[in-house]
């Protein structure tokens, strides 16, 4: 590496405009480096736009666009210009854009040059410099076709205003030019034929990718300008409406057009994330911009309200967008773009010059479409993913939780142990006294257990009672019963023999059934029957009698003289005396809880989200 100090002359240079443009193309026409990406291209066999991987030079496409956009702008000024012919010669590399308009063949008195020579051969010239004038054109900076001229080895312009025809040839990147040739002619036209300076783009000629992208641009212009007939290599490309253009991409879509015809939109379902094909004054805004945001925000607000109200889910705007494909053709006043390459509109909404409101009719169509079904599927997938993550985190945590209120069994053969789930801590007070420590454990509930039919997994893992119970038994969320992690072979439910006790039992059964239905197939869950009436004989030598249902007690009382007994009604487990408590611990009357269609239906009736089912049962 040379350490020789540069001279002032070598370090600081003054370039002429043409040299600066050629040296720094990205400032004027975009990057001249290859870009490989997926782009929509026209497939003639299917008459569809299909995504294909192409490698292209953005600046090369820009110099084509500068010429054809000028013809579109002239059509807006003069609707009589209604035909454009585009010819791309892949052999010679020459590109020609010809329209049936015409530029006045007159001398510009201020510059003493023909107007046409100024427009095509003098930088910073044009008709779009009056900022007080409302323009609906794409051009605005005075570069336009001069840039195409600069990036061309040869650039020929011909124009006829109906009386005179002007012809001039530029060469050597607009540094050289012939004298204008003026002849008589009555056929109005403007034609630009240029051979790009391919070496400036790292090309030798027009390859298939650039050819297809030029063809795609012609289709775009035809789609957003249905009042013009555009021919591409003699093939007519014409759409009666923007809808016909949308059909190249999607068969099923919803569309509408504003009354002033300045806004045409289409919306379809997307399976590849948010997609948009948009135009602002016929310029393709590949990166979208304020016009795209303006329309999408209206649609998203309505969709967000719908999902929040009907499905109780608040979805982020960015997440809703992922399911939509927007097509948009907008005309705005005095458009501003993020760069000379015009890939993103930055005009503020208040300066659009017109407004557009997505109709209620269109929103209703969207709400009945595949778009909404797709979002609902995504919600479920996201919920499943979130649940799986929560489950993994919880299951890792469960193995480390030490449940303080668990009276644990001490035996090593855990499947021979049973755990009693008791209603309240007071009901468990005598358990330690009468249990067999090796095989019996107990867990005391605090009040009413959670109804898991009405909560999400996220809320479940935040429920300390449920988490402690899972840790105590050795259950893992989202996983089937596993003998290796299971800490008890039987689950015995001890609750009061009243309405509240039965409700708690049912909530526990519902909890176990929802997450571990196979626990019932293994016959692990039992309801321990507790006495509601105790008959104590007045003769001490006789044993007391325990009754577990009112029917059982009533049948007995009809056949026996109650004067010989002291009758005690038990309000709950806490009301049991020691020998009665010992009886339900060591000689319990067990009812096996099974899973069948009837029990499933019962759980859904009493704990499901459909309150009408409960109303029917209560009215029976």
Task: Provide the descriptors you would attach to this structure in a database record.
Rossmann fold; nine-stranded mixed β-sheet; 620 residues; alpha+beta; Heat Shock Protein 90; Ribosomal Protein S5, domain 2; five-stranded mixed β-sheet
Strand content: 15-25%
Please state the overall shape, judged from the principal axes of the Cα atoms: rod-shaped
Gross CATH architecture of the largest domain: 2-Layer Sandwich
Number of helical elements: 21
Q: Decide which structural class fits the backbone.
A: alpha+beta
CATH superfamily of the largest domain: Histidine kinase-like ATPase, C-terminal domain
Alpha-carbon Rg, integer: 41 Å
Percentage of residues assigned to helices? 25-40%
CATH domain class name of the largest domain: Alpha Beta
How many β strands by DSSP? 26
CATH topology value of the largest domain: Heat Shock Protein 90
Supply the number of structural domains: 4
Could you list the spans in which at least 5 consecutive residues all have pLDDT below 50? 597-620
Structural features, described:
The protein is α+β, with helices and mostly antiparallel strands. It has four domains: 21-239, Histidine kinase-like ATPase, C-terminal domain (Heat Shock Protein 90, 2-Layer Sandwich); 249-378, Ribosomal Protein S5, domain 2 (2-Layer Sandwich); 399-531 and 584-618, Rossmann fold, CATH 3.40.50; 533-569, no CATH class. Helices cover 34% and strands 22% of the residues. It contains 21 helices and 26 strands. Strands 3, 4, 7, 8, 9, 10, 11, 12 and 13 form a nine-stranded mixed beta sheet that branches. Helix 4 packs antiparallel against helix 6. The protein is rod-shaped and about 140 Å long. The termini are far apart. 34% of the residues are buried. The model is unreliable at 597-620 (pLDDT under 50).
């Amino acid at each position: 590496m040379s350490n020789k100090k540069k001279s002032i002359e070598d370090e600081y240079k003054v370039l002429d405009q043409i040299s600066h443009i050629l040296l720094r193309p990205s400032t004027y026409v975009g990057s001249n480096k290859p870009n490989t990406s997926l782009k929509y291209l026209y497939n003639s066999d299917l008459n569809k736009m299909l995504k294909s991987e192409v490698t292209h030079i953005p600046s090369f496409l820009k110099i084509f666009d500068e010429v054809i956009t000028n013809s579109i702008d002239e059509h807006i000024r003069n609707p009589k210009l209604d035909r454009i012919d585009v010819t791309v010669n892949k052999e010679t590399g020459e590109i020609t854009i010809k329209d049936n308009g015409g530029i006045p063949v007159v001398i510009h008195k201020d510059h003493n040059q023909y107007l046409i020579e100024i427009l095509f051969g003098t930088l910073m010239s044009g008709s779009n410099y009056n900022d007080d004038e409302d323009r609906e054109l794409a051009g605005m900076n005075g570069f336009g076709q001069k840039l195409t001229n600069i990036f061309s080895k040869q650039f020929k312009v011909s124009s006829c205003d109906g009386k005179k025809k002007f012809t001039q040839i530029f060469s050597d990147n607009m540094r050289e030019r012939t004298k204008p040739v003026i002849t008589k002619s009555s056929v109005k036209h403007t034609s630009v034929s240029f051979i790009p300076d391919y070496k400036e783009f790292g090309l030798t000629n027009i390859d298939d990718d650039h050819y297809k992208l030029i063809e795609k641009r012609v289709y775009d212009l035809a789609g957003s300008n249905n009042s013009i007939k555009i021919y591409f290599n003699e093939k007519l490309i014409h759409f009666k409406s923007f809808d016909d253009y949308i059909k190249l991409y999607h068969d099923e879509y919803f569309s509408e057009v504003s009354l002033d015809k300045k806004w045409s939109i289409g919306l379809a379902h997307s399976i590849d994330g948010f997609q948009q094909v948009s135009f602002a004054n016929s310029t393709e805004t590949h990166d979208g911009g304020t016009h795209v945001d303006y329309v999408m925000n209206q649609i998203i607000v309505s969709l967000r309200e719908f999902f929040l109200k009907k499905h109780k889910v608040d979805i982020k705007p960015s997440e809703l967008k992922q399911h939509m494909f927007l097509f948009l053709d907008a005309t705005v006043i005095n458009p501003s773009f993020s760069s000379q390459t015009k890939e993103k509109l930055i005009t503020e909404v208040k300066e659009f010059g017109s407004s557009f409101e997505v109709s209620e009719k269109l929103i209703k169509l969207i709400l009945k479409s595949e778009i909404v079904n797709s979002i609902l599927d995504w919600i479920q997938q996201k919920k499943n993913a979130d649940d799986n993550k929560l489950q993994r985190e919880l299951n890792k945590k469960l193995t480390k939780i030490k449940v303080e209120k668990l009276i644990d069994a001490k035996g090593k053969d855990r499947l021979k142990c049973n755990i009693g789930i008791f209603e309240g801590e007071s009901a468990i007070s005598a358990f330690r006294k009468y249990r067999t420590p090796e095989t019996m454990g107990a867990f005391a509930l605090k009040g009413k257990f959670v109804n898991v039919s009405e909560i999400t997994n996220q809320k479940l893992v935040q429920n300390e009672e449920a988490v402690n119970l899972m840790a105590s038994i050795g259950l893992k969320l989202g996983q089937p019963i596993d003998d290796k992690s299971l800490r008890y072979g039987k689950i015995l439910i001890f609750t009061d023999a009243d309405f509240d006790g039965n409700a708690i039992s049912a909530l526990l059964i519902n909890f176990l059934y929802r997450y571990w239905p196979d626990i019932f197939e293994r016959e692990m869950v039992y309801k321990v029957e507790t006495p509601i009436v105790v008959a104590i004989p007045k003769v001490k030598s006789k044993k007391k009698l325990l009754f577990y249902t009112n029917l059982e007690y009533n049948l007995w009382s009809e056949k026996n003289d109650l004067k010989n007994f002291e009758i005690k009604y038990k309000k709950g487990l806490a009301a049991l005396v020691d020998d009665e408590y010992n009886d339900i611990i060591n000689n319990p009357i067990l009812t096996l809880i099974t899973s069948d269609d009837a029990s499933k239906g019962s759980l859904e009736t009493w704990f499901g989200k459909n309150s009408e089912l409960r109303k029917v049962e209560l009215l029976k």
